Amino acid sequence: MAVIAETEEELIKRLDEWKDNVESKGTKVSMNKTKVTISGERQKVRQKAVRWPCGVCSKGVGSNSVQCTSYQKWVHKKCNGIKGSMSKVSKSFIFRGCLNPVTSAGRTTVDIGASAELELVDKFCYLGDMLSVDGDADAAVEARIRIGWNKFTQLVPLLTNKNVSLIMRGRLYSSCVRSSMLHGSETWPVRKENVVALQRAEMRMIRWMCGIKLKHRFPSKELRERLGIDDRHWYYSRTGIGM
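and the corresponding structure tokens:
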């Protein structure tokens, strides 16, 4: 289960309420296994440099924005949460993330009272997917590629067996390897770099199954057709990973 909050006080309050409700039903809670991550603390620059970046999404702002009096950053209307006219609150506007935000500031734990401290982490696995403080899909893609290679190496005796037809190898690959690599991909906020990393990993596996090396310069489309594997443009579009 995930508990989400805007401030540290709100986080502690929600954790206490959750812990009390669970324990009231006779279930023991192990707080040592509970982790805290602060989203956006080391958010990387995704967009090209702009003169007036939004303090939330980093895209360039225009007239439809307001400046946070605390953070001194401009924020889009769609990002600032203001309902109605922005001119009425422009002189006193403070973005909700600046009102005592959750911040690590070099800490490694968060004290929630009751002699319990939760570990601050940069990333953690949730429902089989990897979440990171940057809010991107880099950690998830890296983890899924590692899992894909692990599955592939386990099945190498079958995937490279010349007594097994290429079509059968392709079906085995799609069912066991590719499905594990793209698990949860529908929810990834992917970038072009993530798609390229997945494609490179897949093409290395495909060449290995076909007994072809990169220096042979065989077209990727031809190798996929030999294995009966879906065209990458259609497949990534279907799973939500756009080109």
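(Above: one complete record from the training split.) The radius of gyration is 24 Å.
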